[in-house]
C-alpha cells in the first residue's frame, strides 16, 4: 500500500465514508415504535392542549336581558306596572300607528278608569293617540288638477294649518277670535264670510250660525283645559275637484280634557273629556277660474259631532257636563262610540243633535 492510499484510509476512518449506514439513536427508535403503534400526527413532547370549555351563550343572553330590565326599572318605574298586569289605564301602551285610511272597526276597550289631573287620558283610546298636530296624517303630494306636486304639498300643509288654528290654538280654545284660521279662508266666498260675521258677533247663535261648526271653544269662566295636550287622530285626503281645483278633506277627532274653572287641584278634581270629530272639505281653486286670494281656500262643507260638549240649544261654546256626567239619561236605541272612526261622520256616529237631543256615548 502506498503512502497516499494509507493516508486516505486514515481520513475516511475518522470522518466516515459517504453513504455508510448510520445506526439510529435510542430516541429515534422510540418514536418509530410509537408511530407503528398509533398512526397519525404525533404530539409534541412540549405541546399543551387545554381542556374544552362548554359554551354558555344562553346564560350570557339571560344576564343581558336582566341587566336591561333593571335599567328600565331605574329609568321608568311606572312602566313595570303594566308588565305584571297592573293598573296603568292604557298610558304605558304602545302608541297607535298613524291613520292613513279609514279604520275598519272601533279601537279596543280600555280599563274603566276615571281621568285625573295627572292622567287625563287614562281609560281612553286617546291615551295611545298622538299629541296635537302630530295626530293629523298628511298624504304624499302628487300633481293634481291645476297644481303640480309642490303646490299640492303646500295646499295640504295649509289645510292642516287651518285645522290646527280652528281646533287646537290655545287662544281659540279660550274663546278668542280665530284670526289665523280666518286668514286662510277666501275673503270672496260670500256665504262663508256672512257665517263668520254672524257666528262671531251674535250672543245667541242659531244652529246655522253656531261658531262650533268650525271652531272649538270653551268659556274660560266655566272650564279650563287640563295641561296643554289635546289628543288627536285623523287624516287629510285630496282629489281633483270642480274646475280643476284641488279638494282637500280633513277628518279629525280631537279629545279635550277639561276641568271646572273654579275646581280643585287635588286627586279628586273632576275631569271630563270633551270629544269633537270634525270633517272639513276645502277647495284650493285655480285663480284663473275662481276669484280668490293667494294662500286662501274656499270651504265646500263642514260638519262636526261632539260628546260631552252640551246637549241643549247652541251657545257658541262647548259645555262639559260637570257634576252630571254620570247622571245623563241612557238612550239604548241611540248609543254611539265617539272613538269609532270607522263610520262616516254625521250618520250613526252623531253624538249630539240640537233638534232631537243627545245620543248616549258608550265611553268618553
What is the element layout, followed by pairings?
Elements: H1 3-15, H2 26-37, H3 57-75, H4 80-83, E1 130-131, E2 136-137, H5 149-167, H6 170-173, H7 179-182, H8 190-199, E3 223-225, E4 231-240, E5 246-260, E6 272-284, E7 298-307, E8 335-336, E9 352-353, E10 357-358, E11 360-361
Parallel strand pairs: 2-4, 8-11
Antiparallel strand pairs: 1-4, 3-5, 4-5, 5-6, 6-7, 9-10
Order of helices and strands: HHHHEEHHHHEEEEEEEEE
How much is the radius of gyration in Å? 41 Å
Total strand segments: 11
Overall geometry comes to elongated
Describe the structure.
With 364 residues, this protein is of the alpha+beta class. It has a domain at 111-361. It has eight helices and eleven strands. It has helices spanning 3-15, 26-37, 57-75, 80-83, 149-167, 170-173, 179-182, 190-199; strands at residues 130-131, 136-137, 223-225, 231-240, 246-260, 272-284, 298-307, 335-336, 352-353, 357-358, 360-361. The strands form three sheets. Strands 1, 2, 3, 4, 5, 6 and 7 form a seven-stranded mixed sheet that branches. A two-stranded parallel sheet has the order 8-11. Strands 9-10 form a two-stranded antiparallel sheet. A hairpin with a 3-residue loop joins strand 9 (352-353) and strand 10 (357-358). The protein is elongated, with a radius of gyration of 41 Å.
